[in-house]
Amino acid sequence: MATTVTTGSRARVARRIATAAAFGGGGIGLLGVAGVGLLLTEVRLARRTVGGSSDIPPCADGRYGAAFGHRTDRPPLRLGFLGDSTAAGQGVHRPSQTPGALLASGLAALAELPVDLRNVALPGARSDDLPRQVELLLGEGETPDLCVIMIGANDVTRRLPPAESVRHLSEAVRVLRAAGCEVIVGTCPDLGTIEPVYQPLRWVARRLSRQLAAAQTIGVVENGGRTVSLGALLGPEFEARPRELFGPDNYHPSAEGYATAAMAVFPTLCAALGLWPEEERPEPARREGLLPVEQAAARAASEGGTEVAASRAPWALLKHRRRRQLPAPEETPANRPSVTG
User: Fold this and answer.
1) Is 181 within a domain?
2) Which among 203, 242, 273, 318 has most CB atoms closer than 10 A?
3) What is the pTM (predicted TM-score) of this model?
């Protein structure tokens, strides 16, 4: 009963945020003035311990699965990556450990086609940087076949109003879809899993993260994209194994953490291109189904690894796709992607 009440409440909040975004509202106060003051105090305490990373993420741009190009006349698939430090792969040191490289390698192996990766994500970016990133990606001449966006954490920690956050993300999805791209969004991660963050900030961060993730899902799905919830999926795994899944800065994922996130996104990425060997219709035994979009969004925010995709309005398809281990990109000079930029 409690879970149903929580999901229903989250659905209502998510719909209010998405509605405000659609009509240009600046935001909805999810916390009172006292709550914001407490949150900022705890953020200052957490920053002393977390610190963050100033390392420049490794550039993984280039061609993956080049050997497949000798077996077919079909053109390479083009994969674009947008978002914040998680999308950029901050916290690891090898290009092959970034989520872009992991997904490009997996996609090349499954499609048996070369995949050209272009990553324009910016560490520290909020959703209001997405218009610049979209313009940069689409202005390079060749439109990607598929784009992955990972965004939201900095919107919470740097106080971008939720409605404004969702409005920028929704517009980015709309523009990319109009250009012919399939779009997959990894929604806001669970900031309550960051180990040095203390209570009550941990509870507040988790609540705000999930509310934003649900609202992001509504905005993305209603503009023709698909979402994969990362927060509730990665939350328990990262909480149980923080030394393995968080990097040295205690904030960004480690190489294993990025691999965990990439495995969650990979089935949806392939399904968007018609490559995933599963039925698109829902399987009730796997708790899948057609739901009103706000209910699907709220469920996804609480059930990690959940995909939400558009169906006939106002319905959305909620799927729990089976994850697979991704092939590791090889580090040999012959197989390493050419680095550009």
Assistant:
1) yes
2) 318
3) 0.83
